[in-house]
């Protein structure tokens, strides 16, 4: 039997965490190194970014590629499964733009 509430809860379990959606968004077009992600999301702490990257990797959303070089070179990219989130993120972005406009209109 279909349970939409359960379906939404499953999605939120994967994307919960203040920074996960932004991490996925920043990986939507290219692989990125850890340092690049830190620069793109400056308010995230190192500990939280590492934890959320590991959780996204465990859920199959991102792929961590370790190039075994000195100095270490690790890149994160979206998995094929993670790419299934892109339409959702695009819709979220469009809604965010609409919401910003709504806030501007109602602020006056």
Quick overview of this protein structure:
With about 110 residues, this protein is mainly α.
Description of the molecule:
By secondary structure, this protein is mainly alpha-helical. The chain has one domain (4-107): Winged helix-like DNA-binding domain superfamily/Winged helix DNA-binding domain (Arc Repressor Mutant, subunit A). It is 56% helix and 11% strand. It is built from five helices and three strands. Strands 1-3-2 form a three-stranded antiparallel sheet. The protein starts with a helix and ends with a helix. The mean pLDDT is 95.
- CATH class placement: Mainly Alpha
Q: Count the helices. How many?
A: 5
* Spans of at least 5 consecutive residues with low confidence: none
- Structure classification: mainly alpha
Q: Could you name the CATH topology?
A: Arc Repressor Mutant, subunit A
The backbone outline, from C-alpha atoms, is globular
N-to-C span: 47 Å
Succession of helices and strands: HHEHHEEH
CATH superfamily, please? Winged helix-like DNA-binding domain superfamily/Winged helix DNA-binding domain
For the sheet with most strands, the description reads: 3 strands, antiparallel
Please give the number of β-strands: 3
Q: Rounded to an integer, what's the Rg over CA atoms?
A: 16 Å
Report the average pLDDT across residues: 95
CATH architecture label: Orthogonal Bundle
Strand order of the largest sheet: 1-3-2
Q: Tell me the domain tally.
A: 1
Q: Specify the helix fraction band.
A: 55-70%
């Amino acid at each position: 039997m279909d349970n939409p509430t359960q379906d939404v809860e499953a999605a939120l379990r994967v994307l919960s965490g203040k920074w996960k959606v932004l991490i996925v968004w920043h990986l939507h077009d290219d692989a990125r190194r850890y340092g690049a992600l830190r620069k793109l999301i400056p308010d995230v702490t190192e500990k939280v970014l590492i934890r959320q990257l590991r959780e996204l990797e465990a859920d199959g959303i991102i792929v961590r590629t370790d190039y075994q070089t000195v100095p270490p070179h690790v890149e994160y990219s979206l998995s094929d499964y993670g790419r299934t989130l892109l339409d959702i993120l695009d819709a979220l972005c469009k809604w965010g733009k609409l919401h910003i406009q709504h806030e501007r209109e109602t602020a006056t």
